Amino acid sequence: DDAERLAAFEARVAADEFIEPKDWMPDAYRKTLVRQISQHAHSEIVGMLPEGNWIGRAPSLRRKAILLAKVQDEAGHGLYLYCAAETLGTSRDEMTAALLAGKAKYSTIFNYPTLTWADIGTIGWLVDGAAIMNQVPLQRTSYGPYARAMVRICKEESFHQRQGYEAVMALCAGTPEQKAMAQDALNRWWWPSLMMFGPPDDASPNTEQSMRWRIKRDTNDALRQKFVDVTVPQAEAIGLTIPDPALRWNEDKDGYDFGQPDWDEFWAVVKGDGPVAADRMAARNKAWDDGAWVRDAAIAHAEKRALKRAA
Ligand code: FAQ
Question: Does the C-beta of 40 come closer than 6 Å to ligand 1?
Fold first, then answer.
């Protein structure tokens, strides 16, 4: 019966076994996974937009080639993640429809504008840096297909983070105007990057259950702390200042004390009021509509081949 199956499921999770698509799982576990994995997939897809609009304006051929490769990687991440979510019984068409209708959540970070070239380096450094901090532990998430998707994603994110930091480093070694551009980008992206980890633990409705089921392996605040601890020395190394007057090293906890992002702004952006949220949704819908002929052609081609095989 259900109580027995639930006990067996919880014992497997506690023993760090992976749960696989055909295994029995509680409905709430399946629902939480579909929620988190689909939100994650949508983030990768919408996340192509802020950087995609700089491909034509990259300052050199080398930077352009790197950025193009990075944006393509994000598309690939979205596709692995949609596949992982599909193993739980929700179709990619349903997930895509929810995104295009503006009903699906995706990371708040992608509702902020990319104003200068320095923003592109800063996104690689901070946004991909935050993504790695969050996703390395997810390689041990309890659902097998999600954990395995994370392995390749983390390798690619690590290249993204390095290319971003290297681009910011180049600006910091350039003219005073270039260095000021890098500082301005850090000032604008710092707080939204801290928001990527989600609300504080005491305001996070999903953390406790997700930790018990080992869907999440660390809490939002624990990952945010780790991110601050590794990022501050990186900023110092290239002569940039983190825009947080409360930031200071705390010997006792062997980590930094730091200020809190504006959580009212965070919840407003979660609810869809981000500075460029409407533009992002319009761009996604336009891309979907513009791609209709490609989907139609692929289906027509597949049908023609199926007919030939039948003949
Ligand atoms: N944005 O109870 P919690 C990338 C929502 S990396 C929007 O704490 P949970 C790479 C949350 O969904 C970015 N919504 O939730 C890249 C929940 O709403 P719901 C994507 C947020 O799930 C780089 C409510 O608030 N990474 O794309 C956010 O336990 C560069 C309550 O929150 C992932 O998705 C937020 N920041 O913890 C691509 C990683 N935070 O559904 C392109 C996997 C919270 O109950 C360029 N996800 N919410 O109505 C996770 O680890 C978790 O889902 C968290 C949130 C940590 C994001």
Answer: yes
CB 122 near ligand 1, within 6 Å: no
Q: How far is the CA of 23 from the centre of ligand 1 (A)?
A: 26
Q: Whose CA is nearest to atom 32 of ligand 1?
A: 204
For 3, the 3-state DSSP assignment is helix
Is any ligand 1 atom within 6 A of the Cβ of residue 58? Answer: no
Closest atom of ligand 1 to 199 CA is 8
Rounded CA gap, 161 and 19, in Å?
Answer: 30
Residue 146 contacts residue 138 (beta carbons within 8 Å): yes
Residue 248: in which H helix or E strand, if any?
strand 248-250
Per-residue pLDDT of the chain (311 residues; tens, 9 = 90+): 889 999 999 999 999 999 999 999 999 999 999 999 999 999 999 999 999 999 999 999 999 999 999 999 999 999 999 999 999 999 999 999 999 999 999 999 999 999 999 999 999 999 999 999 999 999 999 999 999 999 999 999 999 999 999 999 999 999 999 999 999 999 999 999 999 999 999 999 999 999 999 999 999 999 999 999 999 999 999 999 999 999 999 999 999 999 999 999 999 999 999 999 999 999 999 999 999 999 999 999 999 999 999 88
Nearest to 231 by CA among 104, 126, 101: 126
**Structure pTM?**
0.96
